[in-house]
Amino acid sequence: MGGPCVKSENTEKKPDELLLAFTLLSQCWFGRRASDIRAFLNRGLSTVFRRELDGILKHYQHGALLSFAFDKQTLQDRSMVISLLKAAEASGQYAQIFSGLAHYQAWKIDMTDKIARLLYYPFFLFLVGCALLGATLFILVPELQPILKEMVNQQSTRLDGIYAFVVWCQNHGLLMVGVILGPVLILGLFGFMSTRMQLMMQKTLFQVPLLSTLIKYGETVQFCRVIHLLLAHDVRLIEGIKQMACTHPLAVCRHSYQKLHEDMTRGESLSQAFAKVSLFDPLFYQMLLAGEVSGNLVQAMKQASHYFDQAFKRKIDALLRLLPTLILMMVGLVLIFILSQVILPLYDTIAVSGDQI
């Protein structure tokens, strides 16, 4: 597992295919013929992934170690999988390890789906709000304003201010786009190119009151699940932390795990080293200390992963129940704005025009 760390791993393979592959591999007895194992793997996998797994099995059939055969850049959680396979080569517990990987992959798919749904609602709200306001300001108001001016004999109406704003936006469209998108593009470019900028932006996320709680719960359960899976199959804790320092997708987490690995390498105790890391929920540190004192860190990580998994799911489910209501309220506010600033002035103008006639 030597060599330089990389910022993230290539994840070209579909998560559901990995889940199916690990599940089927856990059911295979590796003393059987490779053709029997391939028959299991032909169920529901894409042609590309099936061909790659078939190549892995051919390497294994010809005497290669599974940890070597699975060492492919396109494999998700590659470092963890290889470490576990090396442990399996020493213990012979291939089925148990593939079963553990299947459970981990199933959990990962479930969490990814929940987080995607959580992010979908604000994005949907933004699109709906922009569509309603855009249609009102740039289609309805320009069409109605000339007609209304004729109806009231060119007298002023309540739509004049909005119409002047719309005309200004149409005349200065490029300036508006630059003002809105310019800072976003600059921050995005610096965030992509500068590790320091990534650290600063991601540290800010860990400090936002409500968001930080959810992020810390998610990071805690992710860490506990990975470390429990590794420890349960005799992979050293310091090796697991080193892998997370190399492969975690967030720069702030990679930086924190790297410092944690360095502190543990210098001989600091778990409680001392972890006390310097602010990625986790406060309760986790107490559970870690209990596992360190009792000498049963595997059981402590198992209990922590179960507790934080349930707590994380409850928080996400609560937000998923709350967000539709918030979306309806926000859309209602947009509609109230349209009603008060466009529809009611329209009726007032029509009423004034009727009185003049």
Put the structure in a nutshell.
By secondary structure, the chain is an all-alpha fold. It contains 15 helices and no strands. It has a domain at 15-76.
State the order of secondary-structure elements, H for helix, E for strand: HHHHHHHHHHHHHHH
Strand share of the residues?
under 5%
Shape: elongated
Q: Helical content, roughly?
A: over 70%
Q: How many strand units?
A: 0
Q: How far apart lie the N and C ends? A: 87 Å
Q: How would you characterize the largest beta sheet?
A: none
Uncertain spans, ≥5 residues at pLDDT below 50? 6-12
Report Rg.
29 Å
Q: If helices are DSSP runs of H or I spanning 4 or more residues, what is the number of helices?
A: 15
Instruction: Compute the average pLDDT.
Output: 76
Structural class based on helices, strands and sheet pairing:
mainly alpha
Description:
The chain has helices spanning 15-27, 34-41, 47-61, 66-69, 78-91, 94-151, 160-171, 173-193, 195-205, 209-232, 237-247, 251-265, 270-275, 282-294, 297-356. The chain is mainly α and 357 residues long. It is built from 15 helices and no strands. Helix content is 80%, strand content 0%. The protein has a domain at 15-76.
Write the layout of secondary structure elements.
Layout: H1 15-27, H2 34-41, H3 47-61, H4 66-69, H5 78-91, H6 94-151, H7 160-171, H8 173-193, H9 195-205, H10 209-232, H11 237-247, H12 251-265, H13 270-275, H14 282-294, H15 297-356
